[in-house]
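User: Okay, second chain of the day. Same drill as before: sequence in, structure tokens out.
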Amino acid sequence: MTITTIRELVPVLQTAIGPVILISGLGLLLLTMTNRLSKIIDRSRELLDESEKLFGVDRARLDREIDVLWRRARYVRTAILLATASCLGAAMLIILLFLTSLLHLEVPLLVATVFILSMICLIASLIFFLFDINLTLSALRIEFEGRRKVQH
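Assistant: Same drill. Structure tokens below.
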């Protein structure tokens, strides 16, 4: 193992800033997603408690809304898992950048592969996040239908 000078490590530090910023952004994204999941779970529990007191059409409406919330929770969970995998990939990329410099390894294909996989996980995470956002309107539509019936 060859020890490098600080002067040789500075470019590695500069290169590692990109993945560090990615990790920071992913942290905020994960915070948003976990908050959404928490709200979905809380709303599901409210509806389950409410549905135990209802029968007929009202019960069926709440069951439909609970089904939508269940799908939303699965989408958000998948988005969180993929965002976490992306974050782990970025962390591995930082370690790889330092190891390649410290050990004088030439593994550009490995570095590129880790980066590409991290980005694929991020893209997939955002797609599942969009699925959740799209389903939010479905749950809202069901709730509006129930409120219209109560008003008439």
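The radius of gyration is 23 Å.

User: Thanks, on to the next one.
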